[in-house]
Design goal:
Low-confidence stretches: 303-307, 702-763
Largest sheet: 7 strands, antiparallel
Radius of gyration: 36 Å
Oligomer: single chain
């Protein structure tokens, strides 16, 4: 195929054609220049269209469709042109009475369309259009040809910002001597398609997929015709403004220089072989050969045909050199303009949900929570049941489980049984877990502060193994009185027992969660209680919603058909779906080979099948397996964690565990496709790669949600941009969470601002981090290792900037309120200095001149100060005061110490100091000396140090020893702990000596304080016996 421009060309080519064959005719087509080529893929049945796809070419007509860049949906076509093309396609299909697939190539210019060719077959673009739209054109065409029914024009449901681009893949590097220009003959050997939010993003991703490396600095231009120079002028100006170095051949460099665009001139190739007179600085050959060019845009004067390999113009030689030296090459003006526009936009090109298509529909949930995980051998020493259950839970989409405190024949009712469970699960859990405690008639006295930190909820059992029946009301009442108001109470009571529990809960103004509701009377009682505004929630085992006693004669754990119908009728009353005890007990009753993981794997397929049948919705599943459990049990958020499920694929259920299942061999709709935890894919298509990295979240919880006030109604602060506490967003994190941040990404915008521009340049905005952005900072337990690492990297960059310039303007216009109910020098001054160094202002509240002296409560104080400040730093003598203040504050609360409880900000600063002074925290031996009982800083510091590989020594008098709960938590985390009274026992091995001050205000009498205040003194004699490089962290005064 050739393009003829003159009569001599025509005579020459016709002569060549007759030399090949005088018997076969030559087809001559009129060539329309500067016209758009448009691809139409369609399917018709008996002449009537059932589906069509309109795609546009980036290159003008004259480039073979196999070499063209295809865009779908079309981005630059006039709607009138599209309408005419569709109308013409409909008429052609009717005239030819087409049944099956066909492809038409149109040419359009000024809304005038013409047909290049019509092919009654599936074109190479069929797979592309099928992937982009999600409608399988090949499947539809096959059904049409076989006479099977099809739904014409299925709904596409494409996102608003969504484009697919297909680019050609060339192999010119393997074709010695071939001229890499585009023409009417196909030269590509493959193609790549990618998706993006716009055509620029999709185009760049597709090019990168073909092996092209995006330019970083130097771009070489060689543009033949004056017309294309003018067309490229705005694009080249964008390159210059984007900071690229431009180089050009003689005519090209002169043209852009005349238009005020600096363009370095490079000499053309030498006219004769062996001529080495060119200076390397200006030699195009040397620049290409030495890989000094990142991109070569070469637009030949006649970019309409491919020259033969024997043609050796200078342009051809440079193009061949670019190919041979693997320099990215663009030879089409339309592609060059699109590429330039794409790279100057500086898009992140992050992988997102628009980057892939599947043959099935999927839905993304946040990580599921199983609120009632049943462990048969719960308190059996060295039992692996709980570990296996967490592993199966992750594979089934559960990223957090709450362990029931009742096993098959045992319960967690005291410290000993709790420690056995903790020992069994520590270091072996594959997902986050929370532990519970079972109430009995005699153990309410065990409910103390030390226990509260280790368990999430109190369970009051009324079935199987229970001694509450001896004196139910008194026993339950004692537990209600002893249990903290901010932790949930759970019960499995039924009938009159349930009524008694609900009455006691109402009298104590407490909430209660009812588990494993199975009968009509109970669900109606709970519904009535909710109508009366009682604080009651409930859950139902998924097995109870899908299996009945009639289906499995002999079972007693399942509801009757009538009771099950009542559960479905009152679905709005059910707050949570759980696994519970029902699956395991059903297997026992039926004398089957039942495993501890029974019911976990079946949960999601059963629920998704109900969605397919129209009985449930995806939102209903999300509410009952994530949103409501989060609210009821105060589970911490799991950032960058989600579960992707296939929702429309029918499969035959086969248990992967090998145990018995009532679903075995039955068809279900939907399954878990992918489980992502902390941005890492843990499960993919049934294959699990989970590791025992689950955390104990018994003591942790989310930042209490705060109802945001109408800022426009607050006269004290007019702007709507004021930072407030983020309310608990329980929607899917894939759509609403901030983008995932790796360790160095958080500080990237800061680093950029530090290294560019003048020192007085305003500080760049910091990318929001989900663990810190507009969050209360109440406990060190709310952070992960990765959160702390990100924070330290950012702090380091900010520290460097402050050291260079004194201040930065990161917090300009912001106000920090310091509210200290106790005297403070170091903490208060450090917060004030930091705020002012960052450009903000500080509002000090002197308590002796505030309304506190009039009896104003903490809640009212923080409500008031929240109207004036953007954040509040609070120090208060009562343990838990920061958490209480956070419930009422409209702005973030920063805990600067709550009695002998926690001091999270000091712990962060301490670890940052160790990291800065010694280069690392890992591998160090840290000795804590002094008042470890009342020292809140050491309590938080120990928790934070469990993220690192360290050894801890606790040195103190017996009366001031570290609380056992803190010691136990460190040991559960795998940290080696040693406790002693003499510093000399551990001084020689100490890398960090952390000294706490013996504070007089923490003692009940002065006599007690006097007896220990001088117990330990760090002086020159102590330092002489220590390591030479040991550092001392001392609060002073000495």
């Amino acid at each position: 195929m050739n393009v003829v421009y003159t009569e001599d060309d025509l005579s020459n080519y016709l002569g060549q054609a007759t030399a090949v064959s005088r018997e076969h005719p030559v087809v001559i087509s009129k060539y329309i220049e500067q016209a758009k080529e448009i691809e139409m893929d369609a399917i018709a049945k008996e002449g009537k269209l059932v589906m069509h796809y309109v795609s546009e070419h980036i290159e003008n007509a004259g480039v073979h469709s196999g070499d063209a860049t295809l865009v779908l949906p079309p981005q630059d076509l006039d709607p009138e042109t599209v309408r005419r093309i569709v109308d013409a396609t409909r008429k052609i299909a009717n005239a030819l009475n087409v049944t099956g697939p066909f492809n038409i190539q149109f040419i359009a210019k000024n809304n005038d369309i013409k047909v290049i060719e019509c092919n009654l077959r599936a074109a190479r673009s069929f797979p592309f259009v099928s992937k982009v739209t999600g409608v399988d054109a090949v499947e539809m065409a096959t059904k049409v040809m076989l006479g099977l029914p099809v739904d014409p024009y299925p709904e596409l449901n494409l996102p608003a910002e969504y484009v697919g681009v297909k680019v050609p893949q060339f192999s010119f590097s393997r074709l010695s001597g071939a001229d890499p220009v585009l023409g009417v003959e196909m030269a590509s050997t493959g193609e790549v398609a990618c998706f993006g939010k716009n055509k620029y993003e999709a185009y760049l991703k597709a090019l990168i997929s073909t092996g092209i490396v995006l330019p970083k600095k130097n771009i070489l231009l060689s543009i033949g015709s004056y017309k294309e120079k003018l067309e490229m002028l705005p694009s080249v100006e964008k390159l210059y403004r984007a900071g690229y170095n431009l180089l050009g051949t003689s005519g090209t460099a002169d043209f852009f220089t005349e238009h005020d665009i600096p363009c370095k001139y490079l000499e053309a190739l030498p006219d004769t072989a062996g001529n080495d007179s060119q200076k390397s600085e200006y030699s195009l050959t040397q620049h290409l050969a030495n890989n000094l060019i990142d991109l070569y845009i070469n637009l030949p004067s006649k970019n309409n045909f491919r020259r033969p390999a024997s043609y050796t113009s200078k342009g051809y030689k440079t193009r061949r050199m670019a190919v041979d030296f693997a320099v990215p090459l663009i030879t089409n003006v339309k592609c060059a303009k699109l590429f330039i526009e794409a790279i100057v936009r500086n898009m992140p090109l992050d992988v997102s949900n628009v980057d892939f298509k599947t043959s099935h529909r999927s839905f993304t949930f946040p990580g599921f929570i199983n609120t009632m995980a049943f462990v048969p051998n719960l308190t059996v020493s060295r039992s692996t049941d709980l570990s296996e259950i967490t592993k199966a839970s992750v594979a089934a989409g559960f990223t957090t489980v709450q362990v029931m405190p009742c096993g098959l024949t045992d319960r967690v009712v005291d410290d000993r049984s709790l420690q056995v469970v903790q020992a069994n699960v520590t270091g072996s859990a594959h997902c986050d877990y929370a532990l519970s405690f079972a109430g009995s008639a005699t153990n309410s006295a065990l409910l103390k502060d030390e226990l509260f930190e280790d368990i999430k909820s109190l369970f009051l059992p009324f079935h199987d193994v229970t001694d509450l029946s001896a004196n139910k009301v008194a026993a339950v009442a004692s537990h209600f009185a002893a249990w903290p108001s901010d932790k949930p109470i759970v019960t499995d009571a039924e009938g009159t027992d349930l009524a008694s529990v609900l009455l006691l809960a109402s009298l104590h103004n407490r909430g209660v969660h009812v588990v494993n509701v199975t009968n009509k009377n109970d669900i109606l009682l709970i519904a009535l209680s909710k109508e009366k505004q009682l604080k009651v929630t409930c859950d139902v085992s998924v097995y109870s919603l899908f299996f009945t006693r009639e289906q499995f004669p002999g079972s007693t754990c399942l509801p009757t058909a009538a009771d099950q119908a009542a559960l479905w009728q009152n679905l709005n009353v059910i707050d949570v779906f759980s696994v519970g005890t029902t699956p395991y007990k059903l297997g026992l009753e039926l004398k089957q080979n039942v495993l501890p993981t029974a019911g976990i794997e079946e949960t999601l397929p059963l629920l998704l099948t109900a969605v397919s049948d129209g009985r449930l919705t995806h939102d209903a599943i999300k509410a009952r397996l994530h949103d409501n459990p989060m609210k009821i049990f105060d589970f911490p958020e799991q950032p960058h964690t989600h579960v992707e499920v296939v929702v429309d694929r029918k499969v035959q259920f086969t248990p992967t565990s090998g145990g018995w299942s009532p679903l075995k061999g039955k068809t279900v709709t939907g399954a878990v496709h992918r489980v992502v935890i902390q941005n890492h894919t843990i499960v993919l298509d049934g294959v699990s790669s989970s590791k025992p990295l689950g955390r104990d979240v018994s003591a942790s919880g989310p930042v209490p949600p705060t109802r945001l006030m109408d800022r426009h109604a607050r006269g004290s602060f007019a702007t709507v941009n004021r930072p407030t506490v983020i309310t608990q967003d329980l929607r899917s994190p894939i759509d609403h969470a901030p983008p995932p941040l790796r360790s160095m990404d958080l500080a990237q915008s800061v680093v950029t601002s530090l290294r560019q521009g003048s020192p007085t340049r305003p500080f760049a905005p910091v990318a929001p981090h989900p663990a810190f952005h507009r969050r209360h900072i109440l406990s060190i337990k709310q952070f992960s290792n990765e959160d702390v690492y990100d924070l330290f990297n950012l702090a380091h960059e900010m520290r460097l900037q402050v050291e260079r310039n004194g201040t930065i303007d990161l917090l300009k216009g912001r106000v920090l309120c310091t509210l200290f109910y106790e005297p403070s020098t170091r903490t208060s001054s450090s917060f004030e200095a930091a705020m002012k160094r960052c450009g903000g202002e500080v509002l000090q509240i002197p308590l002796d001149r505030s309304s506190v002296v009039k009896g104003e409560t903490l809640a009212d104080t923080v409500r008031t100060l929240g109207c004036y400040a953007d954040a509040i730093v609070l120090r208060h003598p009562a343990v838990g005061s920061a958490q209480s203040a956070a419930k009422y504050s409209p702005v973030p609360i920063l805990n600067a110490g709550d009695g002998v409880g926690e001091h999270p900000t000091q712990a962060l600063l301490d670890v940052y100091t160790i990291r800065s002074e010694l280069g690392t925290v890992n591998g160090k031996t840290i000795t804590m000396l002094g008042d470890l009982k009342n020292g809140r800083t050491v309590h938080s510091l120990v928790t934070l140090l469990t993220f690192y590989s360290v050894r801890l020594n606790f040195v103190s008098p017996p009366s001031l020893a570290m609380p056992e709960s803190v010691v136990a938590a460190a040991r559960r985390a795998g940290v080696q702990v040693r406790q002693c009274e003499s510093l000399d026992d551990v001084l020689a091995e100490t890398d960090v000596l952390y000294v706490t001050r013996v504070q007089k205000e923490r003692f009940e009498s002065e006599k007690e304080w006097e007896s220990v205040k001088d117990a330990y003194v760090v002086n020159h004699a102590v330092m002489a016996r220590a390591k030479e490089d040991m550092i001392v962290m001392h609060p002073l005064p000495r």
